[in-house]
């Protein structure tokens, strides 16, 4: 009778999941003894020597690198020039090309546009071309080459001289608000701030020679740099200054 009660109680415990069934028994090949598998719940302490699968966690180094990552610069526009070294007939260029505009009463040059890469050229009768709208140096060079090739196909004996990037416009978000009034008071020799005329503080950096537009929400526009290195140097110089004027 006692054995029947024990067997009945054991069966009910197995059915409810409180006790491992015979299917949960695993044969240890080294000792040929039956060893009970540990339950799936992590609240029950494990025996010494029992291996527990490691939990999937992000490495500490990865977390630290994410925390220490500084503000990221994004190039928005490049302005470059080239000299074709020959006089150009702007009326003829406008008449024989697509995607071009010429209104001498409003502007003295032909405005021509490309789709790939997306760029705009200002073409002058002296043979000078100003190209804007690209976001990478290689794209700027390619677009300028394409504009020169279009003009060459019209019969002009063009050259490709003195290609140069004159201005790199970049943006950045510092992700914290800035006390622009205090910044202007402390750095008045470099800055000007008239919020009734323009919402940003204008900061003229001496080295590198760039101009920064600093907005109260922490967003920056950096203009005047000719290389990405100059843009990054300007950000590295201004970032600790702006942190000291962070709104609490």
UniProtKB/TrEMBL annotation:
Compartments where found: Nucleus
Metal-binding recorded as keyword: no
Protein name stated in the entry: TATA-box-binding protein
GO molecular function, one term: RNA polymerase III cis-regulatory region sequence-specific DNA binding
Major site of localization recorded for this protein: nucleus
GO aspect biological process, one term: DNA-templated transcription initiation
Keywords noted in UniProt: DNA-binding, Nucleus, Transcription
Superkingdom of the source species: Eukaryota
Organism for this UniProt entry: Homalodisca liturata
Function (record text): General transcription factor that functions at the core of the DNA-binding multiprotein factor TFIID. Binding of TFIID to the TATA box is the initial transcriptional step of the pre-initiation complex (PIC), playing a role in the activation of eukaryotic genes transcribed by RNA polymerase II.
Disordered: annotated segments: 28-55
Keyword DNA-binding part of the UniProt annotation: yes
Gene Ontology CC terms: nucleus
Similarity section: Belongs to the TBP family.
InterPro entries reported for this sequence: TBP (IPR000814), TBP_CS (IPR030491), TBP_dom_sf (IPR012295), TBP_eukaryotic (IPR033710)
């Amino acid at each position: 009778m006692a054995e029947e009660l024990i067997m009945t109680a054991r069966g009910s415990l197995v059915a409810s999941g409180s006790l491992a069934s015979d299917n949960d028994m695993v044969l240890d090949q080294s000792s040929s003894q039956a060893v009970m598998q540990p339950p799936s719940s992590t609240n029950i302490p494990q025996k010494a020597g029992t291996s527990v699968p490691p939990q999937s966690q992000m490495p500490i180094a990865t977390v630290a690198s994410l925390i220490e990552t500084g503000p990221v610069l994004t190039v928005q526009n490049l302005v470059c020039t080239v000299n074709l070294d020959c006089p150009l007939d702007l009326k003829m260029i406008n008449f024989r090309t697509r995607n071009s505009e010429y209104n001498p009463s409003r502007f003295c040059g032909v405005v021509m546009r490309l789709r790939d890469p997306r760029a705009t050229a200002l073409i002058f009768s002296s043979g000078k071309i100003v190209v804007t709208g690209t976001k990478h140096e290689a794209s700027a060079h390619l677009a300028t080459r394409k504009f020169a090739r279009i003009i060459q196909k019209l019969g002009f004996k063009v050259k490709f001289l003195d290609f140069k990037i004159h201005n790199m416009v970049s943006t950045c978000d510092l992700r914290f608000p800035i006390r622009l009034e205090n910044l202007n008071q402390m750095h008045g020799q470099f800055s000007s701030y008239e919020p009734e005329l323009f919402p940003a503080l204008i900061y003229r950096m001496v080295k590198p020679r760039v101009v920064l537009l600093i907005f109260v929400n922490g967003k920056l526009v950096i203009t005047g740099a000719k290389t990405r290195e100059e843009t990054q140097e300007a950000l590295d110089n201004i970032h600790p200054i702006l942190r000291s004027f962070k709104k609490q």
